[in-house]
TrEMBL record:
GO terms (BP aspect): proteolysis
InterPro entries the record matches: Peptidase_S8/S53_dom, Peptidase_S8/S53_dom_sf, S53_propep, Sedolisin_dom, Tripeptidyl-peptidase_I
Entry-linked CDD domains: Peptidases_S53, Pro-peptidase_S53
Chief place of localization: secreted
Catalytic activity: Release of an N-terminal tripeptide from a polypeptide
Keywords: Calcium, Hydrolase, Metal-binding, Protease, Serine protease, Signal, Zymogen
Named cofactor requirement(s): Ca(2+)
Binding site for Ca(2+): D519, I520, G538, D540
Matches recorded under Pfam families: Peptidase_S8, Pro-kuma_activ
Entry superkingdom: Eukaryota
Source organism of the structure: Postia placenta MAD-698-R-SB12
Name used for this protein in its record: tripeptidyl-peptidase II
Length: 559
């Protein structure tokens, strides 16, 4: 028999080997399985999950206040963007939070690795059996019906009550991003032989760089500032082709740009295979390199090794936040529906975009191609806001068509976020539109939500070079790189004049920049068995504030 002392020591050792009993509370939950997914089985207890833990940032409110301060034209600190270290200081968790979360993990024999510049994101590997206990969860296998692809998720999870002030998110848990990827459904048509000749009259039938230069007053003289660069993001194994770019530029752009090029950065197993080009990647590169003449362009290839649960968007943001010199513009022609993404994940990603804005980066996203039915056309009753256009710290770009005058493209996604409220910079414009709208579509959208898109640009029948031939493509995927190129060229002039790049655009666009945009007042974006929203005078959730006028943007920017 054990002596009393040995028995006490044995019980102590046994207790130390078990997690401390903690009170848990639900942190995130879904009432139902998202449309398009079915639960097929319980996950194997031995399956190892790669989870990410977002720690509470030490001063998110301070970050947002600083972002507005350096991004609002009327502010005395306008243009005085923050350094990497200053942004990291806002985002870094407190030592108390780090210690509390790591102590909890150690109770389960787990250790975490930091995966973000500010150490506010941790990565852990944990078997399903342990994860179900830790988070009072039911990790199961869910199958995406149209593709048959599976993922392990839970409809709810809990965290210890004493960690609520330290831990903001566990991910991916309740986010059900489509496994088909975030590529928007651009329409591709092969160009006839007769139409391949370079257009003498710009915009006569299709859109090429000369058309956009004439329509928006985009300069054809090359940029000069090496520090100013545009990032074009690529996902879904999409790669641009240098031969397609050269073919396109030699046929549809001036001779001085025919030798233009781009650099490639790879992340998460991303690769660059120009022998297997993608139409989206070719489009995005050809209309940044081909329009923003002389501006350095980086193609950011994000592979399938990401475990961020949001297509690589979060890894992309954290990568550029980790660089000492931030890009002046990031353009992304991908997206999904807001309902696919948990509120916690969306908040964390949106804060990352706020951090990029504070660094002086303009983050642009195509608004989507499904009108009011979401990122792509589909059946719906209530209107479907798109992701991540509902984040107020990105500039959402819708699409127009025609040139005399421009009208809304009927696929241009727009509406109001169900996650983010109407931000101050657009409250007056949104209020005016809602008054115009009256009771039309009442109850189908969130009238107190952040409205999108913010701006627009041409999005129909863009000529691209693709696999040695020429095609036309349509979608808001055309509009985002177009607007990004305009901003990249404005930034070049600003830097050359000793000024800062524009950074987060929205406070500028909704104030002094509003006069530098052509208001689009006709067209709508049907969906959900309705005509959707209607473009009208002023901001609207179809074309935003309108399309760019380069010379007027220079004036609004103080040049």
């Amino acid at each position: 028999m054990l002596s009393a002392g040995l028995l006490a020591l044995s019980l102590l050792v046994s207790a130390l080997g078990k997690p401390v009993a903690r009170s848990l509370q639900v942190h995130e939950a879904r009432a139902t399985i998202p449309s398009g997914f079915v639960k097929t089985a319980a996950a194997s207890p031995d399956t190892v999950l790669s989870l990410r833990l977002a720690l509470k940032n030490s001063d998110t409110d301070g970050l947002i206040a600083a972002l507005y301060d350096v991004s609002t034209p009327s502010s005395a600190n306008y243009g005085q963007h923050l350094s990497k270290e200053e942004v990291d200081a806002f985002n870094a968790p407190t030592k108390e939070s780090v210690d509390a979360v790591n102590a909890w993990l150690s109770e389960y024999g787990l250790s975490a690795t930091s995966i973000s510049p500010a150490d506010d994101w941790l990565a852990i590997s944990v078997p399903v059996s342990k994860a179900n206990v830790m988070f009072d969860a039911d990790f199961s296998i869910f199958t995406h019906e149209s593709t048959g692809k599976t993922s392990v998720r839970t409809l709810s999870y809990s965290i210890p009550t004493d960690l609520v002030d330290h831990l903001s998110l566990v991910h991916p848990t309740t986010t059900f991003a489509s496994p088909t990827g975030p590529k928007l459904p651009i329409t591709v048509k092969q160009l006839s032989t007769d139409a391949r000749k370079r257009q003498v009259s710009s915009c006569s039938s299709n859109v090429d760089p000369a058309c956009l230069e004439a329509l928006y007053g985009i300069p054809t003289t090359p940029a000069t500032e090496a520090s100013n660069y545009i990032v074009v993001t690529g996902y879904d194994d999409q790669y641009p082709s240098t031969s397609d770019l050269e073919n396109f530029l030699s046929s549809y752009q001036s001779a001085e740009s025919s030798s233009a090029s781009y650099t490639v950065v790879e992340l998460d197993g991303g690769s660059y295979d120009p022998s297997n080009p993608g139409d989206e990647a070719d489009l995005d590169i050809q209309y940044t390199v081909g329009l923003a003449l002389g501006v350095n362009v980086t193609f950011f290839s994000v592979g399938e090794d990401t475990s961020d649960g949001v297509f690589g968007f979060l890894d992309t943001a954290n990568y550029w936040l980790g660089q000492s010199t931030a890009p002046s513009v990031i353009t992304t022609s991908y997206g999904s529906d807001e309902s696919d993404i948990s509120v916690g994940v969306f908040n964390s990603l949106c804060n990352a975009y706020a951090s990029l804005g504070a660094r002086g980066t303009s983050v642009l996203f195509a608004s989507g191609d499904g009108g009011v039915s979401g990122s792509q056309s589909g059946s719906c009753t209530d209107f479907v806001p798109t992701f991540p256009s509902g984040c107020p710290y990105v500039t959402s770009v819708g699409a127009t068509q025609n040139t005399g005058p421009e009208t809304a493209a009927d696929f241009s996604s727009g509406g109001f976020s169900n996650v983010f409220g109407t931000p101050s910079f657009q409250s007056s414009d949104v209020s005016s539109y809602l008054s115009y709208l009256g009771t039309t579509n009442q109850g189908l959208y969130n009238a107190s939500g952040r409205g999108f898109p913010d701006v627009s640009a041409q999005g129909v029948d863009f000529i691209i070079g693709y696999e040695g031939e020429f095609y036309t493509v349509s979608g808001t995927s055309c509009a985002s790189p177009t607007f990004a190129s305009v901003i990249g060229l404005v930034n070049d002039r600003l830097v050359a004049a000793g000024k800062s790049p524009l950074g987060w655009l929205n406070p500028f666009l909704y104030s002094t920049g509003k006069s530098a945009l052509t208001d689009i007042t006709s067209g709508d974006n049907p969906g959900c068995n309705t005509n959707g929203f209607t473009a009208t005078t002023g901001w609207d959730p179809v074309t935003g504030l309108g399309t760019p006028v380069f010379s007027a943007l220079l004036t609004a920017a103080g040049l």
